[in-house]
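ok so for the tutorial part 2 we go from a plain amino acid sequence to predicted structure tokens. step 1 is just haveing the sequence, like this:
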Amino acid sequence: MRRLAVLFLLFPFFAGSPVLAEAVQTSAEHAIIMDGDTGQVLWAKDAYTPVPPASMSKLMTLELLFQRLHDHRLKLTDTFPVSERAWRERSGSVCFVNIGDHISIENLIRCVIIMSGNDSCITIAEGVGGTVENFVAMMNQRAKEIGLKGSHFVNPNGLDQPPGQLMPVFDLATLARHLIKAYPELYHFFSERDFVWSNIHQHNRNLVLEKFPGADGLKTGHLESSGYGITVSAVQNGRRLILVLNGLRYPDLAKRDNKAQDWFGEQRRADEAARILGLAFREFREYKLFSAADTVAEAQVWRGERETVPLTAGKTLAVTLTPEARAAMKVSVTYDGPVQAPVAKGQRIGTLNVRAPNAPALNVPLYAADAVGSAGFVSRIFAGLHAVIAGRSAK
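step 2 — the prediction. this is what the tokens look like for a chain of 395 residues:
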């Protein structure tokens, strides 16, 4: 009779590991820490509510441009013309492009990342999509393709007119991870700290690049309606973490002039991001569970030439947890068993389940590492008798 088999696996915890009691706390209304390698959410605060992303949504504009560069449909040396519509875009941060100019894609990328140019985003939108409206439709379609389920775009630059530009911080972290992994040859643009444009030395507004060792991107944002935000990634000791903050508000700056508000707001935003990144790198550790070739468990086989079949995940499995969560971690294997022979190599058999406090559940498919043929006639008779005897003994 088939039944759900549950196997509990033990992983020794070394008590000598330091325990860090400091909790992740931030005044940001929305926040998330994501493992850049696995996509595992390590910590979150209202991370799935769609909110105005401000200029952080320019990452989506860059994604469509990067996709075409990666596919060799465009080159960095190609140029896009500046339209009157782009020239008239004077709200917020701009690069002061001029009507009729032809600007290289390479410089447009820097205008967007370093100067956060709203006018440059219009030029990119028209260059890639023909019209801004068509490009926005492309943004929404592409967002679905790469798994941004809570995002909606109404313009290429993140301004709040027209209203309706929305992204959860989870989607921003997912988008950042996608950009890092899909376009490694272009990611270096996000780490550039300055840029000379129109004979003026421009500095990247992502001050975390200067304040935190290993920080290498991505984008800041600010709207009066939604506060200060940042999407940032950093690498230390081979580990990459992605942090997104949105809704940082500093009401005490309201009495200062706009220039002072921007300066102090950018400094505080960067300090907060650097503080949380430092805490995250100290508190969260990566723990390897299994290598790709490791046998995770053995599943019982019914009427097979062998009584068990080894199960493997076929890939290296690791989790990123605090030491406290690692100590309380529980790992189990579930499968519908015993498994009926014959069993094919690579056949999906069961699931590895990893549970830890304050961490998302991890469920990984397990596959037969070997083939198991059906038992011969005599062996099946003995197996049947064994099952009958075992059943009677159980009574």
